[in-house]
Protein: M23 family metallopeptidase
Organism: Sphingomonas caseinilyticus
Amino acid sequence: MSARTVVNRLGWVVVTVVLVSAFWVFYYNIGLGGGAGDDIMVAGEKELVDRTGAPPVVVAEAVVVGPAGLAIPVAGVKPAQLVDTYTQARAGGARSHDAIDIMAATGTPVVAAAPGKVEKLFFSDGGGGITAYVRSEDGRWSYYYAHLSAYAPGLHEGQQVRRGDPVGYVGATGNANPAGPHLHFAINRMNPGEKWWQGTAINPYPLLAGKPVSR
């Protein structure tokens, strides 16, 4: 084999490798939505995915990140353990749940599902008990954590939290049954100007579990 033939073949190998590499880079960053503020279709509804392109977030070992980029907000809980309680009736059928309950022992750490700012720390005796509202960095989403037994040490309004940062601990404060401690977790889509108690609820279950909503 001549030297020219060897050089030509090596050249084609290099070109092929470069093209294949470029394809996979394109596929993962464009086809799967690798840019900031990407959207995906989940259960027929367009939902925000947390892929900011920021440096990797150091998430505690016990924290599991769901398929939409949200951390399951109770440490140690896996997607298969989640139950879709979003449409369950509450208050004797007067309203729907509009959230999911993540069952866990009292004192289990609750972590931020997504980065944002602690907008409101609030106690509702006849409702969510010890609660925290975290607004996303772009202001479009609010993450609601309720029935906490306590806040994480030092948590305060205006604080910036990263995905996986401590928010509080599972409990049964407010109108929760003490025999079934859990985190009441809700996500609200926020329009410009809406306050912490407002917004339109969406179902967190498919975002955390990667499964269709229950019917």
